[in-house]
C-alpha cells in the first residue's frame, strides 16, 4: 500500500492502485495530474498527503534546498514560488555552466533550476525548459515575466519527444525527472540528439542498485512520487552508452537516504532508492 493510500485514499495521487495499469499512458497521466495539483495548490503540499519533503509532498524549506546543494544566493535569486520543493539534488552544481551557453532543463516545473541556470549563462545565454504539464509551463512563464527574465523559454512537451532542435544545446540538466518518464531510454536518446558535439549531460535523479518489489513498481502513486520509477544503475549506464554518450559518471549519494525515507514514511524505500549525480558527454 502506498503512503497516499494509507493516509487518505488514492484520490490524492490520481491513481487507484487496485485497478491501476502501469502502461506508459497511465504513468504519464498519473504524473501529469499529480504535478498539476502541486503547482495549482495555494500552499506548498496542498492536495498531497505523503509526509514532508520530496516529489511526493513538496518541501520548500530553505534548509532542505541547502541540503540538496543550493546556496542562499540561489534561493534569494529565484522568483517567488519557482521553488516547489520537488528536487532530489542540484544538477547545476555539477554542470559547470558558462556565460553564453544554451541549457535545456528537462521537466522544468515552475522554473527553479532554469532561473538559476539563466543567471549562470547570463544575457548572452539561453535556458530552455521543457515540461509536459501545462500548469507548470503557465506558472514558469508567469514567473519569468514577473521577474524580468529574458533568457528563458518554457515549452510544453514530453522529454521523450522534445520540441527542441537537434544539436542546439550545450548542456542538458534535469532534477528528479528521468525517473518519472515511462520510456527512459528514449529520453536519454533525445538528450543526446539535442546536444551539440562536445555537449554535456548533468542531472540529479533517483537510482537503485537492486530490483524494486513488483508492488512498488506497479504503484502509480509511488511512481508519481519519484520512487517506483527509480532507474537501475546498470540500465542507466546502458542507456547512456547505447545513445552514444562517453565519460559516463554516476555518483550515488548515500546521505540522500535521510530525506528519501520521508517521501513514503514507513515503507523503507530508502533501502532501495538513492539520489545520484549523473554526468556524461557527447563526443
TrEMBL record:
Its EC number is 2.1.1.137. Pfam families: Methyltransf_31. Keywords: S-adenosyl-L-methionine, Transferase. CDD domains: AdoMet_MTases. It catalyses: arsenic triglutathione + 2 [thioredoxin]-dithiol + 2 S-adenosyl-L-methionine + H2O = dimethylarsinous acid + 2 [thioredoxin]-disulfide + 3 glutathione + 2 S-adenosyl-L-homocysteine + 2 H(+); arsenic triglutathione + 3 [thioredoxin]-dithiol + 3 S-adenosyl-L-methionine = trimethylarsine + 3 [thioredoxin]-disulfide + 3 glutathione + 3 S-adenosyl-L-homocysteine + 3 H(+); arsenic triglutathione + [thioredoxin]-dithiol + S-adenosyl-L-methionine + 2 H2O = methylarsonous acid + [thioredoxin]-disulfide + 3 glutathione + S-adenosyl-L-homocysteine + H(+). It comes from the Eukaryota. GO terms for molecular function: arsenite methyltransferase activity. Residues 98-243 form the Methyltransferase domain. Gene3D superfamilies: Vaccinia Virus protein VP39 (3.40.50.150). It is an enzyme of class 2 (transferase). Belongs to the methyltransferase superfamily. Arsenite methyltransferase family. This is Arsenite methyltransferase. It comes from Medioppia subpectinata.
